[in-house]
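Can anyone check this?
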Amino acid sequence: MQAPAERVYTLADVARILGVPTETVSFWTKQGVLPYITSPGGQRRYIADEIDRIHKQGVAVRALRAVVRDYFDGDVQAAMAVLARELPGWRPADAARST
């Protein structure tokens, strides 16, 4: 019995899901940002689970940007201060890297 086939997206699917032009998807692919597999016909296919994960991260980033813009008048430092106060143990990514 064969394992179920992995869900994949075409380049056009990825562009639609991520809300970018197909040229951007191609550029990201060439830069190694978007992993892909090659179909038997030689076409790039993108692993659906990976693209879905990237899409969710992008949605979260856009939501955070909107919160900082709307609730903190664009003041990133003020937003980070609230996060540090409200989430014990939370540190900005840059601070976590430097330790």
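Reply from J.R.: I decoded it. DSSP finds five helices and three strands in the chain.
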